[in-house]
């Protein structure tokens, strides 16, 4: 009997945190511009802070310094021509590589992904408008939510039990289906061609890769959550790992396929 209040208390914390993140996130996306740039830069800075604390717990103030440098580099990069922005996006990874005494490759690789993802999200909002940022978020959220419930209800073979023991192939596959539905709906509403369905599935896969990559780091570092910043949810990295993979992938393929397909 004593366990039930604790469970309900945790559920309330999770729901409250989720509602707060939803309100802030939707507000930032809707307003766009400087507000969205600052919001994304702060989130990415926090992710870098969490990453350093995970891979080098004894790093002390270095985690704060690298998080601050990363946020500053990102907010400056979005206001510069792309050619000048690129060195800024890579610099924090190299600075950390030179300062850390272990797990340098993990930091450098994941650090670059965080800043490129933030830059990609801001670019989508600035260059393609709110519609396509909503599409990106909907694909990632649908992949995560539908995959979670499908995996729990259907079960079956595990995806990668040593790293992420709760993920199943059924949940993974239904996440792709959910992303395809999102792509189909947005194609109908925007006039984009049906290639958007295939792109949505690929974005879904990329978001799952981001999730798996962060899970692998946590398992290697023997930690449950990236931090305890978000009550009931863990850390910022735990909530945005899928968005990292999706945003970086869109930043890359957007130059290849001409995004949005049929409208570019």
Global morphology: globular
Task: Report strand %.
Answer: under 5%
What pattern of helices and strands is seen along the backbone?
HHHHHHEEHHH
Number of helices: 9
What is the first-to-last residue Cα distance? 59 Å
Characterise the protein shown here:
By secondary structure, this protein is mainly alpha-helical. The chain has nine helices and two strands; from the N terminus they run H-H-H-H-H-H-E-E-H-H-H. It has two domains: 32-128, no CATH class; 129-264, no CATH class. A two-stranded antiparallel ribbon has the order 1-2. A hairpin with a 3-residue loop joins strand 1 (158-160) and strand 2.
Keywords:
single chain, 2 domains, 2 strands, globular, 9 helices, 264 residues, mainly alpha
What's a concise summary of this model?
The protein is mainly α and 264 residues long. The chain has helices at 3-31, 33-55, 62-77, 82-99, 104-128, 130-154, 169-190, 195-221, 236-257; strands at residues 158-160, 164-168. Helix 1 crosses helix 2, helix 5 (104-128) crosses helix 9 (236-257) and helix 7 (169-190) runs antiparallel to helix 8.
Task: Write the topology of this structure.
Layout: H1 3-31, H2 33-55, H3 62-77, H4 82-99, H5 104-128, H6 130-154, E1 158-160, E2 164-168, H7 169-190, H8 195-221, H9 236-257
Antiparallel strand pairs: 1-2
Helix pairs in contact: 1-2, 2-3, 2-5, 3-4, 4-5, 5-6, 5-9, 6-7, 6-8, 6-9, 7-8, 8-9
């Amino acid at each position: 009997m004593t366990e039930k209040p604790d469970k309900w208390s945790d559920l309330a914390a999770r729901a409250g945190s989720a509602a707060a993140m939803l309100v802030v996130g939707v507000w930032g996306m809707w307003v766009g511009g400087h507000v969205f740039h600052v919001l994304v830069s702060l989130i990415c800075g926090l992710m870098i802070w969490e990453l350093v604390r995970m891979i080098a717990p004894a790093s002390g103030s270095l985690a704060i310094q690298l998080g601050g440098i990363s946020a500053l580099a990102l907010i400056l990069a979005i206001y510069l021509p792309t050619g000048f922005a690129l060195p800024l996006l890579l610099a924090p990874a190299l600075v950390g590589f030179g300062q850390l005494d272990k797990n340098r490759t993990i930091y450098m690789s994941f650090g670059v992904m965080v800043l490129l993802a933030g830059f990609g999200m801001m670019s989508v909002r600035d260059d393609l408008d709110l519609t396509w940022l909503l599409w990106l978020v909907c694909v990632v959220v649908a992949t995560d939510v539908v995959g979670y419930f499908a995996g729990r209800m259907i079960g079956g073979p595990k995806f990668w039990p040593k790293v992420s023991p709760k993920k199943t192939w059924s949940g993974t596959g239904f996440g792709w289906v959910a992303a395809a539905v999102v792509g189909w709906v947005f194609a109908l509403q925007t006039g984009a061609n049906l290639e958007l369905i295939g792109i949505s599935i690929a974005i879904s896969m990329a978001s799952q890769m981001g999730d798996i990559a962060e899970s692998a780091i946590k398992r290697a570092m023997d930690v449950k959550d990236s931090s305890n910043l978000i009550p009931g949810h863990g850390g910022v990295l735990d909530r945005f790992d899928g968005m990292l993979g999706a945003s970086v992938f869109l930043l890359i393929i957007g130059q290849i396929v001409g995004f949005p397909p049929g409208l570019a």
